[in-house]
Amino acid sequence: MAVIRARPLPSLVAFCAAAWLAPPAGAVDTLRCGRWIVEEDMTMAEVESKCVCGAPDYTEIERVPVRGRSRSGASIELGETTIVRWTYERGRRLGARLTFEEGRVERIELLTKP
Question: How many C-beta atoms surround the C-beta of residue 50 within 10 A?
Fold first, then answer.
């Protein structure tokens, strides 16, 4: 009886690794606004002062609980955090959404057209 050993194709392994490491669809590291670059971890004040995109077209503000574990392992509410989302409709270009958590850019997304 012959033993057949299958080895994964190198291209399949590379594809799976790239898919696993890739950011979620629409997520990007930076956003160009005119001559300025908006990056993750910038403060709202930095984005407002440098951003020539102007005021966002839409603003969402959400208060969400911060949860942790007690010594016994029970889930407890430790406080609240504020999440602010600024959405820009940028004409013919893809729209963009900046998500701020505690006043800093946490996520930058490009929005697809419907």
Answer: 15
Q: Encoding tokens for residue 45? A: 């004040």
Question: pLDDT for 23-36, tens place per residue?
Answer: 444 567 888 877 88
pLDDT digit string (tens) for 50-70? 766 778 899 999 999 999 998
This prediction has a pTM of 0.67
Output phi, psi for 20, to 5 deg: -70, -35
The Cα 46–Cα 28 span in angstroms is: 18
DSSP single-letter state for residue 78: E
The 10 Å Cβ neighbour count of residue 100 is 19
What is the distance between the alpha carbons of residues 81 and 113, in angstroms, rounded to a whole number? 30
